[in-house]
Amino acid sequence: MTLTEINEKLVEMLPERRMQHSLNVANCAVKLCDIYDCDKEKAYIAGITHDCAKYLNNDQVDYYVKKYNINLDEYEMNNLALSHSIIGSYIAQYEFKINDIEIIDAIRYHTTGKENMSLLEKIIYMADLIEESRNFPNVDLLRNLSYSGKLDEALLISFDNTIKFVIGNKQLIHPRTVSARNYIMRNL
Ligand SMILES: Nc1ncnc2c1ncn2[C@@H]1O[C@H](COP(=O)(O)OP(=O)(O)O)[C@@H](O)[C@H]1O
Fold first, then answer.
1. Given this structure, which CATH class describes domain 3-187?
2. What ipTM did this prediction achieve?
C-alpha cells in the first residue's frame, strides 16, 4: 500500500485523537532520527502505524488471530493493552503490505520493549511516550534526555515507570519489559 492508502485505512480504524497521536509519534520519531542517525522513512511508517490494532473489538481480535495464526502469550491473551502491538505488527505486514522487518518489529515491541532493542525499536518506543500531546509527570525529563543523545537513559526511566505503574495497578508485568530494563541497565 502507498502511504496515502495506509493513512486512509488508519483513519477508518482509529478515533481522531489516536490518529493525531499516531501522526505525532511519526513526526517525533523522524526528529529523533536526526539525532540518532536512523532511517526517517521507516520511522515515519512505524510511527503512524504502531497503534493500528489499538481499537479492535473482540471479534476483530479473534478474526486476525485466526487469520494469521497469531501466537499470543499468557499476558497478551485477552489483554488488548498488550496484544495490540503484536496483532498490529501482523496487520501492518499482511494488510498494509509493509515488508520491512525492522518496521514490523518496532510495531511489535512498542508497548513492552524487549531485550537488546534495535535503534528503530527504541525510537518508536520513546516517541510513543514523548510526542507533543503526551502529558504526565516527568515527560519533560524524558523529552530532554531523548533529544540530547541520551536515548538509553530515557528508556531505562520509562521501563522503570511502566513497571512501577503496572505494580501500582496490581497487574501482571510482562517479562519482556523486565528483560528490556535489565538489558539496558547492564549495558548503559
Ligand atoms: N510490561 C507490562 N506488563 C503489563 N502491562 C503493561 C506492560 N507494559 C505496558 N503495559 C500496559 O500497556 C499500557 C500502555 O500501553 P500503550 O500502548 O503504551 O498505551 P497508550 O499508548 O494508550 O499509553 C500500560 O498502561 C499498561 O497497562
1. mainly alpha
2. 0.91
The domain segmentation of the chain, as residue ranges, is 3-187
Q: Whose CA is nearest to atom 16 of ligand 1?
A: 111
pLDDT tens for residues 77-103? 999 999 999 999 999 999 999 999 999
- Best of 14, 142, 161, 166 to mutate for ligand 1, by most ligand atoms within 8 A of CB? 166
Nearest C-alpha neighbor of 176 from the set 157, 161, 163, 164: 163
